[in-house]
């Protein structure tokens, strides 16, 4: 028996004819059909990447509006706009046009604030998305390349944010550029030449705003779009990761198809994010350049910090002890700047190489499409927490002056504490988080064997008191009892030389798997059910 399906669109309608015309010339129906059948799982943590995508769309829309009115020139002019306190003050054309956008262009201030808040949310969601990928092991084979692309997106996003933050040529952004100029000048031999090339002469020069503008509206957005497209393409090729659960395996994806379910939800979520950004931009002021005034190299005020995501560079400079300079003839080697450079380099390079390092240490070359619960990979989770602590300490140091004034502390005490926490504190965080993961694993094993504590205590006929436990659901039992139990790498004997090889790798592997608690096996769970220690079954 054949059932005829009546299309909701009439075959002779304008929509149908247009669809046929396009398909005959592009064959797009095959791609739409294939992509529309892709399955995406539902979990709140997967929405972090979507937040980044929708924030980027808000950045593009608001940025397009601003480009029509911004004048990226450092030519000196006199401001005669509507903001009375700065009327008649000399400033660059970039600063004057920023004030015009804020006070003279209808909707200009709203678009400026939408652009800035969306940029902050964009970088924040990228970093949270990266943290989710790291802690759940979603960077493992076959997604190492996508992890690298994501890191490149993060770096480009920070450069994009910093270049846009520097465009108004106000006192705050000018101080930030001055810090960057000082870091460039500290580079041995070529630093001075790079600085003159960037700024068009001695700082502040005459060209930096125009060059940053070209980067900000053309080169960096193009790179973001290219790498974002590659990131999404690889996600489709590899299929989406998913959390373990009944019916979920390494060979399937449980969720909803792109069309129409996931696409409908995604569009709705996009409008929610857009609405949130516009609401924040409407009620919360950000980057009021009129309060800072035009850039002047002479005044530098306390309490000026860069946007939070780039503050770790400024904080690293503040944490270096004074006097770290080595005179070399006519040159001075400024370790006070080069060492923070090295710290930030190690921090970023470590993120790039970690997937390959973990794969080599564990010997795990398998494909992974199921995610790890962070507690079930204690070494990785502790290392990630230590990484975040290291970054956050440098970030907090960028506001050391505000911390001192708000909490009435001595600046030296704040700096000394943060200096201590940068290195020893990182190891403390690693140890505490590692032990916490082990404790949570032990708790999971006990719950998997005996069930949830009910709080009800009964007295047995022979006088013994025992608590009644509530059995787990099938899903809970699966999540607590089924996780990867990959074994450490062992040394091996080379058959040709007879020597033992792989000792270092074996030690690192044992360290990676140290103290990890194995999940309860089905046999142990079944035995616990029939043991009868007062559990409610």
UniProtKB/TrEMBL annotation:
EC numbers: 7.1.1.8
Cofactor: heme
Gene3D superfamilies: Cytochrome Bc1 Complex, Chain C
Pfam family, one: Cytochrom_B_N_2
Gene Ontology molecular functions: metal ion binding; oxidoreductase activity; quinol-cytochrome-c reductase activity
GO biological process per UniProt: respiratory electron transport chain
EC primary class: translocase
Organism superkingdom: Bacteria
Membrane topology: Multi-pass membrane protein
InterPro entries: Cyt_b/b6_N, Cytb/b6-like_sf, Di-haem_cyt_TM
Primary localization class, coarse: membrane
Substrates-to-products reaction catalysed: a quinol + 2 Fe(III)-[cytochrome c](out) = a quinone + 2 Fe(II)-[cytochrome c](out) + 2 H(+)(out)
Keywords: Cell membrane, Electron transport, Heme, Iron, Membrane, Metal-binding, Respiratory chain, Translocase, Transmembrane, Transmembrane helix, Transport
Compartments where located: Cell membrane
Domain Cytochrome b/b6 N-terminal region profile: 18-244
Statement: the UniProt record of this protein carries the keyword Translocase: yes
A GO term from the CC aspect: plasma membrane
Official protein name in the record: Cytochrome bc1 complex cytochrome b subunit
The species this protein was found in: Gulosibacter chungangensis
């Amino acid at each position: 028996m054949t059932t005829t399906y009546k299309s909701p669109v009439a075959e002779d309608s304008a929509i149908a004819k247009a669809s046929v015309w396009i398909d005959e010339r592009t064959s797009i129906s095959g791609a739409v059909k294939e992509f529309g059948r892709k399955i995406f799982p539902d979990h709140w943590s997967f929405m972090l990447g979507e937040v980044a995508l929708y924030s980027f769309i808000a950045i593009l829309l608001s940025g397009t509006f601003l480009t029509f009115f911004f004048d990226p020139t450092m030519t000196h002019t006199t401001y005669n706009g509507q903001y009375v306190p700065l009327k008649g003050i000399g400033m660059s054309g970039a600063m004057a046009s920023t004030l015009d956008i804020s006070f003279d262009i209808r909707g200009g201030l709203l678009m400026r604030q939408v652009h800035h808040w969306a940029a902050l949310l964009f970088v924040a969601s990228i970093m949270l998305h990266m943290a989710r990928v790291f802690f759940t092991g979603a960077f493992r084979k076959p997604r190492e390349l996508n992890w690298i692309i994501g890191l490149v997106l993060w770096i480009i996003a920070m450069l994009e944010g910093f270049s846009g933050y520097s465009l108004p040529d106000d006192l705050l952004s000018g101080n930030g550029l001055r810090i960057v100029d000082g870091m460039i000048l500290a580079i041995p031999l070529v630093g001075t030449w790079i600085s003159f090339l960037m700024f068009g002469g001695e700082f502040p020069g005459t060209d930096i705003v125009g060059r940053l503008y070209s980067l900000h509206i053309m080169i960096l957005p193009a790179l973001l779009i290219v790498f974002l497209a590659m990131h999404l393409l690889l996600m489709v090729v590899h299929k989406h990761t998913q959390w373990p659960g009944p019916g979920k395996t390494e060979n399937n994806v449980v969720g909803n198809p792109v069309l129409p379910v996931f696409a409908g939800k995604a569009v709705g979520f996009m409008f929610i994010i857009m609405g949130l950004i516009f609401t924040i931009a409407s009620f919360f002021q950000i980057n009021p350049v009129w309060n800072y005034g035009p850039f002047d190299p002479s005044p530098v005020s306390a309490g000026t910090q860069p946007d939070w995501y780039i503050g770790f560079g400024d904080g690293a400079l503040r944490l270096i002890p004074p006097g770290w300079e080595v005179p070399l003839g006519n040159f001075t080697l400024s370790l006070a700047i080069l060492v923070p450079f090295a710290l930030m380099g190690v921090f970023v390079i470590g993120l790039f190489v970690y997937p390959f390092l973990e794969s080599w240490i564990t010997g795990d070359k398998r494909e992974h499409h199921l995610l790890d619960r962070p507690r079930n990979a204690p070494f990785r989770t502790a290392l990630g927490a230590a990484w975040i602590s290291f970054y956050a300490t440098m970030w907090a140091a960028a506001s050391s002056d505000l911390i001192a004034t708000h909490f009435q502390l001595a600046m030296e005490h704040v700096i000394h504490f943060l200096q201590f926490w940068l290195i020893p504190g990182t190891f403390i965080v690693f140890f505490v988080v590692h032990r916490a993961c082990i404790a949570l694993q032990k708790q999971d094993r006990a719950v998997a064997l005996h069930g949830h504590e009910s709080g009800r205590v009964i007295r047995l006929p022979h006088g013994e008191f025992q608590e009644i436990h509530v059995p787990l659901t099938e899903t809970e039992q699966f999540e607590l009892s089924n996780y990867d139990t990959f074994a450490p790498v062992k040394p091996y004997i080379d058959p040709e030389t007879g020597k033992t090889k792989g000792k270092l790798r074996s030690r690192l592997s044992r360290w990676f798997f140290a103290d990890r608690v194995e999940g309860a096996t089905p046999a142990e769970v079944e035995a616990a059910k029939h043991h009868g220690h007062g559990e409610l079954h």
